[in-house]
Amino acid sequence: MFGFSSTSKRILVSGIQATGKLHFGNYFGAMKQNIDLANSGEFTPYIFIADYHALTTVKDREALRQSALEIAAAYIACGLDTSRAILFRQSFVPQHTELAWVLNNVVTMPYLMRAHAYKDHEAKDKEVNVGLFDYPVLMAADILMYQADVVPVGQDQKQHIEYARDIAGFYNRAWNVEQFKLPKDLILETVAIVPGIDGQKMSKSKGNVISLFGTDEEVRKAVMSVVTDSKAPSEKKDPDTNNVYAIHKLFLTNAEDAELRRRFEQGGYGYKEAKEALLAAIMKWREGKKALFDDLMQHPEKIERILEEGGRKARKQAEETMKAVRTQVGLQ
Ligand code: ADP
Ligand code: TRP
């Protein structure tokens, strides 16, 4: 039945649940791949802001709205072709939560208790709300709703994709149907972990980020505080244990990368100079993008128009899936 034969293109589904200011970890770890794949013309891309998921941790309505707008503005400013990609807010398509509810009935508690994210929270002695416990089921609904072929996520999301695959099977077997395709080969192994200014994984919770669209001054301050060893400018430096290099290389072509490695390795290239070069690379990256981002944030109605149009398209597809599901399980 797999219902989507009318479109020959493979389906790409990706959600981003950023809950705060976006940083270069978000960009190089998630957004860039999504944009490149979506713009390639090889897929029908569904890209959404996972605001139902964000609700599991955010209890501030203005912050939730603001971060949804920022993610959308950032995707547009970073070049997502919205004439091709279906960009929307998850909550514009309530069918996601409806499908999650149906799927909840084929998933057991012990199965969800094995989820890494749940176990991490438990280990930290945090009270886990039911939404957070159910996070993998909602994510499975996001993916299965559109019969995704490709879900470009990093390693940290691998288990969630396996859960989506399992849950598709649980559903099909429970109602003896072939509604959901078991998604395969969905992980982009190449997605790297972007280090923060202290060398640990860049993450807003660690306060070690370089912000994508913060002020020039914020970016400068972050770059100048990248942690390094205390080698003098004249000394030779190993690029592979060097945090300034690890961040800078993300912005470079292969040839530029080789040149930067050579400079560190031969000595005579101090960290101060290296940081100035990194800052220049970031400022070059921001050229045009930052102005577009700021303009969109000052005119949120422009963003909302795009999100609404994407939402309408997504909702149409989601409603088709839900019509089939409701019939299969005996709901109206
Ligand atoms: P944070 O760690 O700052 O809270 P989120 O968890 O909101 O970031 O991440 C949103 C997306 O960005 C996820 O897809 C995540 O995999 C990706 N991401 C975040 N930080 C990094 C990083 N340092 N390296 C690679 N990807 C990252
Ligand atoms: N859990 C994902 C993250 O933290 C966000 C997400 C929600 C997602 N639903 C999705 C990603 C569906 C891919 C597909 O990055």
Features of this protein?
332 residues, mainly alpha, Rossmann fold, Tyrosyl-Transfer RNA Synthetase, three-stranded parallel sheet, 15 helices, 3 strands, globular, disordered N terminus, binds adenosine-5'-diphosphate, binds tryptophan
Question: Could you give the topology of this structure?
Answer:
Blueprint: E1 10-16, H1 24-39, E2 43-49, H2 51-54, H3 61-77, E3 86-89, H4 95-104, H5 109-113, H6 116-123, H7 130-133, H8 135-145, H9 158-175, H10 216-224, H11 243-248, H12 254-266, H13 271-286, H14 289-298, H15 300-329
Parallel strand pairs: 1-2, 2-3
Bound molecules: adenosine-5'-diphosphate and tryptophan.
How would you characterize the overall build of this protein?
It is a single chain. The protein is built from 15 helices and 3 strands. It is mainly alpha-helical and 332 residues long. Strands 1-2-3 form a 3-stranded parallel β-sheet. It has 2 domains: 214 residues, Rossmann fold, CATH 3.40.50.620; 77 residues, Tyrosyl-Transfer RNA Synthetase. Helix 3 packs antiparallel against helix 14 and helix 8 crosses helix 9. Adenosine-5'-diphosphate (ADP) binds next to helix 1.
